[in-house]
Amino acid sequence: MCKSRPDDVNATTPDGAAWAAPEGLGGSKPVVDRGALQPRLRIALIGTDGLPARYGGFETCVAQLAPRLAALGHQVEVFGSSRGRSARAADGPGLRHRYLPLRANGAASVPYDLLSFLLSYRRSDAIVVMGVSAGVFMPLMRWLAGPRRIVVNVDGLEARRSKWRGLPRAFLRLSERLAIRHAHHVVSDNHGIADIVSRTYGRSSTVIPYGNDHVLQLEPIQVQGILQHRFGLEPGSYLLTVARIEPENQIAEMMEAALAAGSERYVVVGNFSTTALGQLLLQRYHNEPRIQCIDSLFEPQALAALRAGCRLYLHGHSVGGTNPSLIEMLPYGRPILAFDCVFNRHTLGGRGGYFATVSELAERLRQPDAPAWTPDPQGELSDRYQWARIAAAYTWLCRRERSI
User: Fold this and answer.
1) Could you give the CA distance from residue 388 to residue 79 in angstroms, rounded to a whole number?
2) 393 and 378 fall within a common domain
3) By the number of CB atoms within 10 A of the CB, which of 54, 109, 234, 338 ranks highest?
4) In this structure, are 108 and 200 located in the same domain?
5) Which of 115, 109, 81 is nearest to 97 (CA)?
6) Full-prediction pTM beyond 0.90?
């Protein structure tokens, strides 16, 4: 399925026919902003915690997307939360940051997203909404927006995550449905998400993944020094996972498999202290030297060293579309074993290795096939995840007439 589509920045028309991507959004042609001769846009980016990034994939996306849109000549305004924030991002040419005294996550994300929209739409030509938290207000937003474009990135279709039950899940499903129905354009970050949107809501979407050409690359001597002095590790001596500690990310299952396979060391980086599962795993493996838990690490150099030095990367995400933690691993040229689901297969273009159960993963770890599991860091996947290409795709959508 992936091989028939030259790039992950594309969409379909209502009857399923492929649209012709603007130059720079498909194949290996250089990225060219088709809007170069058109009036520049005023673009608001709302729905995230803001910058500097301190939360997740959406924030990383905005951190890379906003300055690139500004560099194309657009006026960009990024909304963020001031709650608990010790530092704020600096404004720059064509780039402004605005902070609201509300939490950006959980139930507070609904009024936060709505207020962000109300404060931005009058002075914007396009509003890019990251997530569907305020989707229940999307009919109102659409009416207020008038001729302005509303572009909604549906993320990983949050209502499908196992942590939501009952009323919260019903609310998220309603928000999802209204956001997808009333937005001018819908963005999916993975073909698997686009297929769900089409099948569930009869709506086409534009597939725009996240990028990975921003990740830091270190010299081998730097990698060794950081691993030894910071984490007590040697290059090539450990398995690695970087993930949120949630049930659908298979963290407990991968720990079990690594121990069953006799792995020397399994290092997991994630938000252990802030989730129930994370705290449980910290207690369970407190005295197990082969399991090394690193809590909420966001330092680029430390992450780069861990990624570059691992023997093999394990990715257990089963939902959420294109996971930034997976594509950010690709430039390091390490073997990857991923949970076997449609999202991960689309993200990796079918490359890498896959597992479906604890026993299957343990068996693969006992008999590794590193060459077969190592995606080429300079191959087709590298072209797919370029931030300049992604910025051009968002610019194109912000100008485009509504797609149904």
Assistant:
1) 21
2) no
3) 338
4) yes
5) 81
6) no
Residue 151 gets which letter from DSSP? E
Letter string b/e over residues 143-170, b meaning 16 or more CB atoms within 10 A of that residue's CB? eebeebbbbbbbbbbbbbbeeeeeeebe
Angle at 212 between CA 211 and CA 214, to 5 degrees: 110
Query: Do 189 and 101 lie in a common domain?
Result: yes
| Percent share of the chain, pLDDT over 90 | 78
Residue 105, pLDDT above cutoff 60: yes
CB 212 within 8 A of CB 331: yes
Instruction: Report whether 275 contacts 295 (CB < 8 A).
Output: no
128 exposed, middle or buried (CB, 10 Å; 0-12, 13-18, 19+)? buried
- Two tokens, residue 21: 């991507």
- Which residues form the domain of 257? 220-384
CA distances from 211 to 79, 322, 383 (A): 21, 10, 10
156 band by pLDDT with thresholds 50, 70 and 90: confident
Checking if the pLDDT of 17 tops 80, the result is no
Instruction: Name the residue with tokens 């007590």.
Output: 232
Please provide the DSSP assignment of 24-50 as one string: TSSTTPPP--GGGGSPPPEEEEESS--
Q: In what order do the strands lie in the sheet with 95-100?
A: 95-100, 75-81, 42-46, 126-130, 149-153, 185-188, 206-207
Residue 136's Cα: distance from chain center in Å?
23
**Structure tokens given for 56:** 């997740």
For residue 180, give both structure tokens: 């997808």
